């Protein structure tokens, strides 16, 4: 082989090397895409929990300001882009809200002590609400890996 041909062979890549490099690139891209999907799901989950917390505070404030009972429909009245479950005082486990089941906020500034679990494909967040403030005093976050 002449010297010029040797130089071209030494600088060029074989088809196998190019395929291996492309496969590694596709693998890295796939992992990054899956990671981003998980981050977006977790962000939606946190947004749902924040909306439920905000609704509780606003409802309690509205009840006090208007001096009237405010009821929030637990079966469809809670903002959620996923699944919502509730647990009332004395109940051992979370359950789906029943049709017509409400969460009451009194004009005296007290709400029913309710625990709410919001969940989607990214995980679940459990919120325990204080009856005196309407704020979430307990928050447990479980993210699916």
Automatic annotation (TrEMBL):
The superkingdom listed in its UniProt entry is: Bacteria
Q: InterPro entries under this entry?
A: N_methyl_site, Pilin-like
Q: Membrane-crossing residues?
A: 12-39
Q: Which UniProt keywords apply?
A: Membrane, Transmembrane, Transmembrane helix
Designated name of the protein: Prepilin-type N-terminal cleavage/methylation domain-containing protein
Q: Which organism is it from?
A: Prosthecobacter fusiformis
């Amino acid at each position: 082989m002449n010297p010029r041909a040797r130089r071209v062979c030494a600088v060029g890549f074989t088809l196998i090397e190019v395929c291996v490099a492309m496969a590694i690139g596709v693998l890295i891209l796939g992992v990054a895409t899956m990671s981003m999907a998980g981050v977006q799901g977790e962000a939606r989950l946190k947004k749902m929990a924040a909306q439920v917390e905000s609704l509780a505070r606003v409802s309690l404030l509205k009840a006090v300001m208007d001096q009237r009972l405010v009821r929030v429909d637990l079966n469809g009245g809670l903002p959620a882009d996923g699944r919502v479950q509730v647990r009332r005082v004395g109940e051992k486990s979370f359950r789906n809200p029943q049709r017509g089941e409400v969460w009451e906020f009194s004009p005296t500034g007290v709400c029913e002590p309710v625990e709410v679990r919001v969940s989607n494909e990214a995980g679940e967040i459990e919120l325990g609400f204080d009856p005196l403030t309407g704020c979430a005093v307990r928050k447990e976050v479980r993210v699916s890996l």
